[in-house]
Design a protein that fits this description.
Rossmann fold; 20% strand; globular; AB_hydrolase_sf; Tropinesterase; alpha/beta; single chain; EC 3.1.1.10; 38% helix; hydrolase; tropinesterase activity
């Protein structure tokens, strides 16, 4: 059964959904969700893993500003690199000797960067619709700075939203925007909403919608991908992001396995049993290599 957990990091508290107990001699699989999603995006996958992969600690985090986690201080716009530090603080509190990171979209970008910077802390990474950090030409840096600052200005000027009259209204909107069936995305939506004054509002910090002021150059992303030492499992949807199959990026990692599933960018919500089976395979292989199975 999934339970609620809170991790204390510098200046904030992060919520999580967990199954199992972390052990110094065991394996912990830490899940990192996508932008404006939350830990419940992994609920269907975790439900299957609980049945098929006993004796393993599973932890799905709500990243700062998402789900039930705390918002950062006023004026904080959630820069990408800060997430890497946030995850590092959580992993420091998890006693498992063997840690597997599984990330979707933004979570996969974080997992890629963290495993490159701290190869001794991560045994495997599982990337769902993600492959290394986002990158763009240095020629775009001035445009990005301008657009990023202007996006912050728009957020500061925004009038408070009126919310939704029902959970169903919010569910229908999110399902339509993401292209995922309502029944598949419901857990994510339910965790992402709160009721105030008889209306439903998204819990996510509005500051999350600000454009980034900085994006790496491809040479930076290349250096990070080359620094990843552990085995990589890439899971992509047939209707997902095409850039995931760029041969230039795939060739940078010597130990990568690619799986393609029917579905889009949220293929883990659309095909939870298949994704759980792939994660189970990674865990069992690591258990054998570690003498735990």
């Amino acid at each position: 059964m999934l339970t609620q957990k809170t991790y204390h990091i510098s200046g904030n508290q992060l919520a999580a959904l967990e199954s199992g107990t972390p052990s110094a001699t065991g394996i912990s699989v830490v899940f990192l969700h996508g932008w404006l999603d939350n830990a419940a995006s992994f609920s269907p996958v975790l439900a299957r893993l609980e049945m098929d992969t006993p004796g393993v600690h599973f932890c799905a985090l709500d990243l700062p500003g998402h789900g039930l986690s705390g918002h950062k201080s006023t004026g904080n716009y959630y820069t990408f690199h800060d997430y890497i530090d946030d995850v590092h603080q959580v992993l420091t509190d998890i006693p498992a000797k063997t840690v597997i990171l599984a990330g979707h979209s933004l979570g996969g970008l974080i997992a890629s960067c963290y495993s490159a910077a701290f190869p001794e802390r991560v045994s495997d990474i599982i990337l769902i619709e993600a492959l290394g950090p986002l990158a763009e030409s240095p020629q775009d840096c001035v445009r990005r700075l301008r657009n990023g600052v202007l996006s912050r200005e728009r957020i500061r000027r925004k009038v408070a939203k009126k919310g939704f009259r029902s959970l169903q209204q919010a569910l229908s909107l999110r399902a339509n925007r993401s292209g995922v069936a309502e029944k598949c995305i419901r857990p994510l939506v339910e965790r992402g909403l709160e009721m105030r004054d008889d209306r439903w509002f998204w819990r996510a910090d509005p500051m999350l919608s600000a454009d980034s002021l900085y994006r790496m150059a491809e040479s930076h992303a290349t250096a990070i991908l080359k620094a990843i030492q552990c085995p990589v499992t890439l899971i992509r949807g047939t209707q997902g992001y095409e850039y995931l199959m760029q041969p230039e990026r795939l060739s940078l990692m010597e130990n990568i396995t690619v799986h393609t599933l029917p579905g889009g960018h949220h293929c883990h919500l659309e095909q939870p049993d298949q994704v759980a089976q792939m994660i189970d395979g990674v865990v069992r292989k690591r258990q054998k290599l570690s003498g735990l199975y």
